[in-house]
Amino acid sequence: MLESPGAPPPHDSRQADTGLPVSVPSTALFTDQYELTMLQAALHAGTAERRSSFEVFTRRLPEGRRYGVVAGTGRVLDAVENFRFDEQMLGFLREQHVVDERTLEWLAGYRFRGDIRGYPEGEVYFPGSPVLRVEGTFAECVLLETVILSILNHDSAVAAAASRMAVAAGDRPLIEMGARRTHELAAVAASRAAYIGGFATTSDLAAGFRYGIPTVGTSAHSFTLLHDSERDAFTAQVDSLGSGTTLLVDTYDVAEAVRTAVEIAGPGLGAVRIDSGDLLLLAHRVRQQLDDLGAHGTKIVVTSDLDEYAIASLAAAPVDAYGVGTQLVTGSGHPTCSMVYKLVARAEADEPDAPMRPVAKRSMGGKSSAGGAKWAARTLDASGVAEAEVVGSGEVPSELADRLLQVELVKGGEVVGREPLEAARERHRAAVAGLPMSAMQLSRGEPVLPVEHR
Amino acid sequence: MLESPGAPPPHDSRQADTGLPVSVPSTALFTDQYELTMLQAALHAGTAERRSSFEVFTRRLPEGRRYGVVAGTGRVLDAVENFRFDEQMLGFLREQHVVDERTLEWLAGYRFRGDIRGYPEGEVYFPGSPVLRVEGTFAECVLLETVILSILNHDSAVAAAASRMAVAAGDRPLIEMGARRTHELAAVAASRAAYIGGFATTSDLAAGFRYGIPTVGTSAHSFTLLHDSERDAFTAQVDSLGSGTTLLVDTYDVAEAVRTAVEIAGPGLGAVRIDSGDLLLLAHRVRQQLDDLGAHGTKIVVTSDLDEYAIASLAAAPVDAYGVGTQLVTGSGHPTCSMVYKLVARAEADEPDAPMRPVAKRSMGGKSSAGGAKWAARTLDASGVAEAEVVGSGEVPSELADRLLQVELVKGGEVVGREPLEAARERHRAAVAGLPMSAMQLSRGEPVLPVEHR
User: Fold this and answer.
1) Does A177 map to a domain?
2) What is the pLDDT of residue A353?
3) Residue of A nearest to B343 (CA)
4) What residues in A contact B149, CB-CB < 8 Å?
5) Second label for B165, Cα 20 to 30 Å away, from A44, A261, A426, B391?
6) What is the pTM of this model?
């Protein structure tokens, strides 16, 4: 189901994905300039090849949130694989004097040959969880900082909002329809993240094309206004799209529109959409009216600036599906995740087998962090519910060996952690189900698991 | 200055822009599915060719904001020009049964042939300002809704935040460095919008490559931690990049780092960057120390979760430049603009020369809007300061004829409104300078101009 038959098979080669319109041939310039100037200076100093471990983590969750959601991992793998400097890019860097010739030469041969481990996509995380670890030479790892953070910070923010909305919606399907509220390509990634977080479908055709997410559509007020009457508009839509279509009933008078809709489509009308007004009140009224008209199977879809709280407030209303836009794609108040990419360990010296040394920023100001490459495990209580996130940097205690969270994603430069989007979605569902019940509360609170440092 | 010598000349043909890595060959799938199903139904009903006027506007500014900033217009023109359905896309739509064969055939020949007028890029706007008007057949206009809104909602949100930050920063330059906090392609558009809003430079290489925005870089804590001492790190950086470089001084102890920095680079050191701690206090201390060391020309760059308020609070501190990330790319609390794309007028009948009729949604719920295609003018008081935004839908009063805000952007499908990015930036500077002084207040307030409807 998740393959788009019309699209080329994704990831079938080391070539840049040409699954237009939402891929880009190279990700190498989605990079802050200082990554390249640091590379130049390290090449000059002879320190560029020092073995290094970088880790991605957050120092905190957005205020009041109970858990974070890892999303974007699959896109990170694409980005790493397609991180190459072609002649045109090198020409730009040369003309702009961004780096020197020696560095340009090094960049021309760049391919990431290191290792990446991390929380699998869809997994939940907490403050300090080592979400991703990138290991290799300093040079090859530092270049990936910006694009990895861009992807994880954006996608995880959307997935976290989606997850809360999915909790609030319960068994009712959520439709992602936020494309018009965010950058056109961020929208495609947002659809993907929302799907992982529990959304069922998207309105965004590019997301269907690129990621095989099921697409849906209803109609807009403009369609009704184009026609001489609402009756004409409904007739046009039902004639062309069938009685299973969704008719928009709030352009003029809702009660009259519902009456007209059932008259034209018959009691087999697929659904009606309400996009304004008091949704709680209207949903009850419209359901009653539909039932009175014998349209017991006609569903009610509501849209109109919904967030997780509005969705929850409609739990007792006869609503069959929620369409969510703005609040989803903007992370419901938290459009980014504050993930950072920090050097946590590096070789003592320049020899390939030099021992690793933990490193960390130490100045005042609250931005210090623990050094050393870290493992993470989630412990369970007697009833199998998650109890704590345990993070450590030495040997893994034997009792935690089968509770480790990180998985191999890239090994020696080869992507080994590719998986279908469906797997991340299912993993997320299972991860949330395994958390204490308070994870489901929408109210503000502390992270639902304590993080223990070993 | 704003052309990237290494990049191909943008917009030199009707071909999709291949200025990698940040263009996409077609924008046609950045579209909500319902645009296509509405098209199908309208083709079926014979109403698809009715002449229509769609307008983009907002019903309100984000709470407390004094003005909005139009940004993204140049990207809209690219998107309209590159909105074509190729075989692969049509194949996808066919396989997924999104629309019928007749509609696919229509889409295969799609090119926008209508007209677009709007506020020029960089101009300010207010609630109800008719920011963009798209005219043509219903069919050709309705398809553009999603991608136009995506671009304007995102880019204008970032530009509005940038503009406030630029007001707060006064003559001090602002560096855009938010790439890691937002989607990797949204980041490129954000750099562009920030530049229009008054930022001077960006850290994002793709933004330099694609839009010719000047790029800059400093260095990260990881570079210091890679080396055996801060002294080694600074030496490596200065040796390779010259004494004009910017050294990051808050990895360990700021005072010691500043001492070491000047010792290594000499008093000609370009700048130091402070990325944590009490920036106000540290800026004063570091300035004093630099001056004591004879490094009077060494600049101080501050970064660390700055927003317009933090920037304003540093106005009296000896700071030379601000680097801004998260709060810029997330619109400083308002990551989207709530612009809508509404059918405001359409032909009475299906004949090409049928008169136009204003249309508008009329149901309860606060989403109704005024029908009719609108003009807009900005009136000035006796001293030449903007006084009101006048919006009307009939004849333009003669006294307003030379104060009209909208310009031609697309005429008969041909883009006529292309301009250098620098023009939008300069226009924005002039537009803000022409507003009443209260526009400059960062505190919450009403829109700085009243909107009068004629």
Assistant:
1) yes
2) 84
3) A222
4) 180-181
5) B391
6) 0.95
Minimum CA–CA partner of A46 in chain B: B236
Omega before B21 cis (within 30°)? yes
Question: In this complex, do A31 and B183 lie within 8 Å of one another by their Cβ atoms?
Answer: no
**CATH number of the domain residue B86 falls in:** 3.20.140.10
CA distance, residue B215 to nearest chain A CA (Å):
7
Do residues A24 and B185 lie in contact, with contact meaning Cβ atoms separated by under 8 Å? yes
CA distance, residue B264 to nearest chain A CA (Å): 15
Which of A54, A183, A275 to mutate against chain B (most B CBs within 10 Å)?
A183
Q: Is A50 within 8 Å of B226 when comparing Cβ atoms?
A: yes
Task: Kindly determine whether residue B367 and residue A275, on different chains, have CB atoms separated by under 8 Å.
Answer: yes
Last residue of a domain, one of A286, A304, A330: A330
Residues A181 and A317 occupy one common structural domain: yes
- Chain B: nearest CA to A183, how far in angstroms? 5
A183 and B183: CB-CB below 8 Å?
Answer: yes
Q: Does residue A9 belong to any structural domain of this protein?
A: no
Contact A21 B20 (CB under 8 A): no
- Calculate how close chain B gets to A402, using CA atoms only, in Å: 32
Selecting from A54, A187, A240 the residue whose C-beta is nearest the C-beta of B150 gives A187
Per-residue pLDDT of chain A (454 residues; tens, 9 = 90+): 333 333 333 333 333 443 445 556 789 999 999 999 999 999 999 999 999 999 999 999 999 999 999 999 999 999 999 999 999 999 999 999 999 999 999 999 999 999 999 999 999 999 999 999 999 999 999 999 999 999 999 999 999 999 999 999 999 999 999 999 999 999 999 999 999 999 999 999 999 999 999 999 989 999 999 999 999 999 999 999 999 999 999 999 999 999 999 999 999 999 999 999 999 999 999 999 999 999 999 999 999 899 999 999 999 999 999 999 999 999 999 999 999 999 999 999 888 788 999 999 886 555 556 689 999 999 999 999 999 999 999 899 999 999 999 999 999 999 999 999 999 999 999 999 999 999 999 999 999 999 999 8
Structure tokens at B11: 């917009």
Q: Is A451 exposed, middle or buried (0-12, 13-18, 19+ CB in 10 A)?
A: middle
CB-nearest to A6 from B88, B149, B342 is: B88
Contact between chains at A179 and B93 (C-beta distance less than 8 A):
no
From A307, A330, A353, the end of a domain falls on A330
Q: DSSP secondary-structure letter at B179? A: G
With a pLDDT cut of 70, the percent of chain B lying above it is 93
Residue B67 lies inside a defined structural domain of this protein: yes
Instruction: Give contacts of A230 with chain B, Cβ < 8 Å.
Output: none
- Look at residues A28, A45, A44, A30 and name the one whose alpha carbon lies nearest to residue A140: A28
Residue B284 lies in domain? 218-319
Place of tokens 């992807």: A151
Contacts of A155 in chain B (CB under 8 A): 183
**In this structure, are A301 and A193 located in the same domain?**
yes
What 3-state class would DSSP assign to B53?
strand
Q: Are residues A206 and A79 in the same domain?
A: no
Q: Which DSSP string corresponds to B314-325? A: TTTS---EEEE-
* Cβ A154 vs Cβ A176: under 8 Å: no
